[in-house]
Amino acid sequence: MKKHWLPAALILLAALLFAPLCRTFVREVIVIPLLYLLWLGRFLLQFVPQASLWPVFVLLLFLIVAAAFVSRSSYRRPPRRLAPAEPDRVGSWAYYLAQARQESYYQWRLGQQLQKLALEAIAQHKGQSLKETRQQLRSGQLNLPPELQAYFEASLRPLGYLPAFRRLAFWRRRSPSPLELEPERVLIYLENLDREDI
User: Fold this and answer.
1) Is the Cα torsion angle 161, 179, 127, 136 positive or negative in sign?
2) How many Cβ atoms sit within 10 Å of the Cβ of residue 27?
3) Contact 147, 185 (CB under 8 A)
4) What phi, psi does 27 have (nearest 5°)?
5) Nearest-angstrom CA–CA distance, 188 and 98
6) Of 20, 26, 64, 142, which alpha carbon lies 20 to 30 A from 176's?
7) What is the pLDDT of residues 7-60, one digit of tens each?
8) CA gap 32, 27 in Å, rounded
C-alpha cells in the first residue's frame, strides 16, 4: 500500500513546487473547472427535494451492505485437508504380510520389521542397548536358531545381495531365500523368549 502512495506524494510535491511558476495554467486548467463543478452540483441539489434524497442514500447503503455480505458468502475458504494418517506398526506389517506372498521386496521389508522387533525384545530381555544386540546378531553371538539367524542376517543385507534378486541365469534353479521363512516362527520365538537362554 505504501508503494502506491509514494508516486502520488512525489507528484503532489512536484506540483506544489512548480505551482508558483505556472499560476495562470493551474488557475485556468484546474481551479476554475473544479469550482464550476462544485457550483453546478450545489445548484442541482437545491432544486432536488430533500425528501427524495434520503431514500436514494438508504438504497445505496443497503446495496453496499448486501454486496459485502454476498461477497463474503460466495468466498468460502477451501476445506482444510487433513494430513494422511501414517500407518501404525501393525498396519504396515499386515500390508507387508499380504505383499510378501507375491514379491521378494516385501519379504525383505517384513524381515527388517520383524528383525527390529526381535532385537528390541532381546535387548530389553538382556538389559542392553539395541546397538549391542545388533552387533551380537552380526557376529552370531545371540544363540538364535539357525533359520532365525539366517533370516535376520538376510534382512540386514542390502536388497541387491539377496539370491532372489541375482537371477543372471534364468534357467538355473533358484536356491530358497532365508527370507522365505514363515513369520510365525519369529513370533513363536518371541513368545518363548523368557524361557530361552540367549
Assistant:
1) negative
2) 11
3) yes
4) -65, -45
5) 19
6) 142
7) 888 887 887 777 677 778 778 888 888 899 999 888 887 877 777 778 888 899
8) 6
Number of residues that this document lists for the chain: 198
- What is the distance, to the nearest Å, from the Cα of residue 31 to the centroid of all Cα atoms in its chain? 60
Render 38-70 in DSSP notation, one character per residue. Answer: HHHHHHHHHHS-HHHHHHHHHHHHHHHHHHHHH
In the block, cell 508558483 appears at 20
Report which of 100, 95, 148 is spatially closest to residue 121, judged by C-alpha positions.
148
What radius of gyration do the chain's Cα atoms show?
A: 42
- Identify the band that residue 162 occupies on the pLDDT scale cut at 50, 70 and 90: low
Tally the C-alpha atoms within 13 A of residue 151's C-alpha that lie toward its C-beta.
26
Asked if residue 147 lies in contact with residue 155, where contact means CB atoms within 8 angstroms, the answer is: no
pTM score of the predicted model:
0.49
What pLDDT does 138 receive?
86
